[in-house]
Every structure is written in structure tokens, then in C-alpha cells.
Amino acid sequence: MSFARNRDLRLPAPEEAPPGRPALAYEIPERHTVLGTALQGPYPEDFEVADFALGCFWGAERRFWQLPAGVWTTLTGFQGGYTPHPVDDEIRTGRTGHAETVRVVFDPAEITYERLLRLFWESHDPTQGFRQGNDVGTHVRSILFTHSPAQRAAAEQTRTRYQQALSAAGYGEITTEILAAEDHPFYPARAFHQQYLDKNPAGYCGIGGTGVELSTPFETNRGSSCPTGIAPAPDAKDT
């Protein structure tokens, strides 16, 4: 990934995107290396799907699978762009429009979507636009892809509350988009990116929170992954 200046970046127009392909260009592993569950399904009945883009998906995925209960599987991928079934080299150019995304399949009887939203907001700086710490590019922007009206309502409500908390702490405006998942297909990343920090425990983790908490009446336990704050690294990782 190049270190282009954040202010010079922009999302591509649809006509600028590579044409892509009709199907995935690589194989996806069948099972999650930590949870042992199916990455692409079938998923248990009554479970829900939630998609979160919050910067480098290596560290983001680990935050969700480390939650103490309720998360059935996690899967890294790309969402929010134009190119069907993109590959790494295309995404790295910024021309596909995709963001690195973590798909979370969870049991709503054990964990609420609002609990996942709290982890999302507190695990990154949602005011940075096309940047997250050391990582710069449109592919590391902040997005919530919602799968139901209830998810959208919760996403909007928590964004408002977190903006109030961030403003009180001296931060700027949240740049997080809230988009309908049905309008933005999710394309799984190649095997190398799935549960990357389980296979490479000392690997690069480029996400970290602001230290500002989301005031919420929901559960307060948080998974532990990267330390609070942006993890320092001499170089940003490539997609």
C-alpha cells in the first residue's frame, strides 16, 4: 500500500473501476482456524450477520473472534466497491472502491448487535477518513454495512452517541458511512488474510481505538487484541 497523502485520496467513479470477474479467483478455507466453524456457511438458523469496516482487517477480525461469547464465525473480505470479485492487486490501487471488511456471524441470544457496535466504535478512530493509523487508502475507511432496519437504526443511534463522546474529547466529525449490505456484495479475501493473526501472532495489527468509550446501557466486556491506541509499525501492511 502506498503512503499517499490522505487529503489527495478520493473514491473512484464506477467507470474507473476494473471490470473484475464472474467468480472468485482463489479458494477460501472451509473452517475458521480458531473457532472451527464454517467460514462461508451454512450458518445456524436464527443467527445474524454483521459487516464492519474499520481499517486493517487482520487486527479487526481478531477483536471480534476474541469476544467471550456469541460470535460463531468471522471472515475477512472486501465490500463497498464496484469491481466484482476483486483481487489484491486491484484493491491496492484504490480503483475498486472496496474497504477491508470483517463479516461477523453471531448468536443474538448470546450477544447483541449493539455490543458488536461498541467494539467497532472503540476499536478504531472513525474520524480519520481514508486512513487508520499507519494505513492510508480508501480501502481502510470506516463503514457499517447493515443487514436489517434494526441494524441500521442501532448503527445510527450509536454513531450519534459516539460523536457526542468524541466531540467532548476534542475529536472531529465521524466519517463512518452506514450502508445497506444488500447493495454492497461481500467478497471473501484469499486464504492468506483469513485469521491472519492466529497464524502469525506477532504480525502487523494496524488498528487501535481513541480511548474514548461509547456510553451505552449494553454489555461492557471487551475482547482483547491490539493494545489501546494505534499499534506502532515501521511499515504499513499490503492488502
TrEMBL record:
Residues 51-205 form the Peptide methionine sulphoxide reductase MsrA domain. Its EC number is 1.8.4.11. The keyword Cell cycle does not apply. The active site is at C56. Residues 1-22, 220-239 are annotated as: Disordered. It catalyses: [thioredoxin]-disulfide + L-methionine + H2O = L-methionine (S)-S-oxide + [thioredoxin]-dithiol; L-methionyl-[protein] + [thioredoxin]-disulfide + H2O = L-methionyl-(S)-S-oxide-[protein] + [thioredoxin]-dithiol. The keyword Acyltransferase does not apply. One of its GO terms (molecular function) is peptide-methionine (S)-S-oxide reductase activity. Residues 1-10 have a biased composition (Basic and acidic residues). Keywords: Oxidoreductase. It is an enzyme of class 1 (oxidoreductase). Has an important function as a repair enzyme for proteins that have been inactivated by oxidation. Catalyzes the reversible oxidation-reduction of methionine sulfoxide in proteins to methionine. It comes from Streptomyces maoxianensis. This is Peptide methionine sulfoxide reductase MsrA. Belongs to the MsrA Met sulfoxide reductase family. It comes from the Bacteria.
